[in-house]
């Protein structure tokens, strides 16, 4: 292939240090809450196509988002997502920017008129942020259940709260990333159910028909940060307030196939690779079995020790984010340093909670959890 007209001559290129195989680090077990570890086969596929995608001689990041090749790529990602989630007819799938946080404001903008009532369940920092954004959108926010008194270590029991008859929707966060709290059931609601699935999307089968709207940031189980996926029932479209920005208007974005503006093309491409990886790995049924086994292994290690503790109510424990503390907090720094040296990274708990947190999303293999448990056992043996 001919050199591009403006490509620099070899002598003009910025010199890069030579790297031998010995200098290449071994991949670690990355327990980050997000951006999170991604499946190695997906990264290797993306690396192999980085400079020549689909025979184009360009990266997928360089092709036109309106060209037929990328339009087909986006359609394939949506089709695979629909298959693995078994999304019913009558729902639209949107690929949006701004992460899940942009949807905190977009949801009331699209589903309510000024002054109407909405209901929220508050189980942690992310639902609290969604509540704050909703209040800024001139709606009457009813917090039907508030778990702040438990320091966000619980979820409300079914039947323990009421959703106002006039509520336009009920919003909840199925999995709170920071506190490691997860709803063990889907709440009942006469109003359309709206849910922030950022930390648990694609981790197990899900009955999408129970929801009016599902949204999720991609950076846990669906790819890199920046992309948000919204799955919205069609009868909820077309209600946006006139003041809603066009890129946050679900109906306008649906009509434009999420390409009203330039979409996050690389993130959409990676979402497609990840959905195919899930299909090839047995689908969401198999993914759920693996995730349940990983969580059970880690909780068993914590519960079987007097040295470690998990603060979350047992029925409300997350499969995806497992916080734990040491009996002696003065050992936290030493624990984290030793873990880092052992190739177990990003285990420090959120600054608002402290302690440790292991995020074990889809891409974390059970071998990584076993390595963490082995390290925890040895650390306890030498420090207890």
Order of helices and strands: EHHEHEHEEEEEEEHHHEEHEEH
Computed Rg: 22 Å
* Count of discrete structural domains: 2
User: Helix- and strand-based class?
Assistant: alpha/beta
CATH homologous superfamily identity of the largest domain: Type I PLP-dependent aspartate aminotransferase-like (Major domain)
**Fraction of residues in helices?**
25-40%
Query: What is the residue-averaged pLDDT?
Result: 92
Distance between the termini: 64 Å
Q: Which band does the percent of strand residues land in?
A: 15-25%
**CATH architecture group name of the largest domain:** 3-Layer(aba) Sandwich
**The top level CATH class name of the largest domain:** Alpha Beta
Widest sheet, order of strands: 2-10-9-8-5-3-4
Which segments are poorly predicted (pLDDT under 50) over 5 or more consecutive residues? Answer: 1-16
Question: Would you mind describing this structure in some detail?
Answer:
The chain is of the alpha/beta class. It folds into two domains: 68-280, Type I PLP-dependent aspartate aminotransferase-like (Major domain) (Aspartate Aminotransferase, domain 2); 283-383, Aspartate Aminotransferase, domain 1 (Alpha-Beta Complex), CATH 3.90.1150.10. Helix content is 32%, strand content 15%. It contains nine helices and 14 strands. A seven-stranded mixed β-sheet has the order 2-10-9-8-5-3-4. A hairpin with a 4-residue loop joins β6 and β7. The model is unreliable at 1-16 (pLDDT under 50).
